[in-house]
User: Fold this.
Amino acid sequence: MNIGSSHHVLTVSITPSAPAASPFPRTDCSNPLNVLASDEQLEYAKKIVQDYKAGVEDPGLTEDEVWAAKELYDSAFHPQTGEKQFLPGRMSFQVPGNMTITGCMLTFFRTTPAVIFWQTTNQGFNAVANYTNRNASAEVTNEQLALAATGATTAGVGTALLFNKIIQSSPALASGMLGRFVPLLAVAAANGVNIPMMRSQEFKTGIGISLADGTEVGLSGNAAVAAVSQVIPSRVAMAAPAMILTPLAMSFAEKTALFIKNPWLKAPVTVLLTGMALTFSTPMCCALFPQRAAIEAKDLEPALQQRLAAQYPSVKTFYYNKGL
Assistant:
């Protein structure tokens, strides 16, 4: 993909099917190629999208070029604030960032120093991603960021060390493959801590809910709970294929003559296999739940239900940004 300062340079084709609140649907914001776009290319894509939403269409652009600009815009700008996101926190950076960290977690999982280092690195990376892709209705303080990262790191490291100790205490378990799946257990435990702590303010203040046309009508803590309950399993599912299939493949590969003679191959091959799995699992799991999610009026807080029923008696469904 290339977006320059002149027309007819966008080449990605996307089939449109717009939701009611926007002339654009949410496109694939996890495409890792989008991290290569320059600031100039991102700003050009932003201008195309903003002009189109304002009803100003450039006749020099094809439909494919407009959709390609939308994909690039989605990959780098927050859907609520419109602010350019910090590169390591963008969903388009998840494959290159996670493949390196996860690959190393799967390679160096047997010693305590390695577990502590890579689990800490992973949770720091996750904290950045969780903050960058949060629902922007509720502010997150520096204290909350630090607390979430610390809590998730403690959960991840603690889980990994506990299971490693259990496995090492049993010769039968130590000689098997179970130890290779400890990083996945640690990641699942850490995500169960990191995401709720990072977004705890949303539970207190609520997140914005809107009508189908995008008009915001209030704040709901119940919607925040629903949002986080969708993000956690999608994040775990995103990591699972790489952290299950890669250890299985490596357990066989490491017994071959090539790897026995060249043990240095373990780390780069593990990272490569992890990246291949994440390339598919990242967009699939981002799409498990729609980013613009729906909540029934009956599932909102009683006071909010009462107010909205008086204002919008015919509306039974409201919408919110669940984050990624």
User: Anything to note?
Assistant: The two ends are 23 Å apart (CA to CA). Residues 19 and 25 are 6 Å apart (CA to CA).
